[in-house]
């Protein structure tokens, strides 16, 4: 499924925050992404309309089953692209993370899939 760049950034942020915290709040997303709380509310409304986040996001942001699937799809590409930037290009972890997000949001999905295949083949060759 195709997601806009903003949706991808926010879904990644929500997943990363859920891995660290029991509860994700708008203010946590705001700090994580460095954006205003009204911007967070606006994008969360968009994510609700897309079926990725439950309606009552004011208290706590929770992904719907569709949201979990979308995050899983996004992270399938993100993980491989991150490996490329961090392991192959030797970028520091934070920079690799930032550039991987830029790559998966700004490049066509086909390009991401092609890079993912190359990374998988290369990693497989290195381990054999």
Describe this structure in words.
The longest helix is centred in the middle third of the chain and has 24 residues, at 65-88. This protein has 128 residues and is mainly α. The mean pLDDT is 88. It folds into two domains: 5-67, Winged helix-like DNA-binding domain superfamily/Winged helix DNA-binding domain (Arc Repressor Mutant, subunit A, Orthogonal Bundle); 70-127, no CATH class. The protein is built from six helices and no strands. The radius of gyration is 15 Å and the shape is elongated. The chain has helices at 5-20, 26-33, 37-49, 65-88, 93-106, 109-127.
In short:
The protein is an all-alpha fold and 128 residues long. Helix content is 73%, strand content 0%.
How is this fold's topology laid out?
Blueprint lengths: L4 H16 L5 H8 L3 H13 L15 H24 L4 H14 L2 H19 L1
Helix pairs in contact: 1-2, 1-4, 1-5, 2-3, 4-5, 4-6
The fraction of residues in strands falls at under 5%
Structural class: mainly alpha
Q: Quote the distance from N terminus to C terminus.
A: 34 Å
- Helix fraction by DSSP (H/I, runs of at least 4): over 70%
Question: What does the average pLDDT come to?
Answer: 88
Q: Can you tell me the CATH architecture of the largest domain?
A: Orthogonal Bundle
Coarse shape: elongated
CATH class descriptor of the largest domain: Mainly Alpha
**Order of helices and strands, N to C?**
HHHHHH
Query: How is the main sheet built?
Result: none
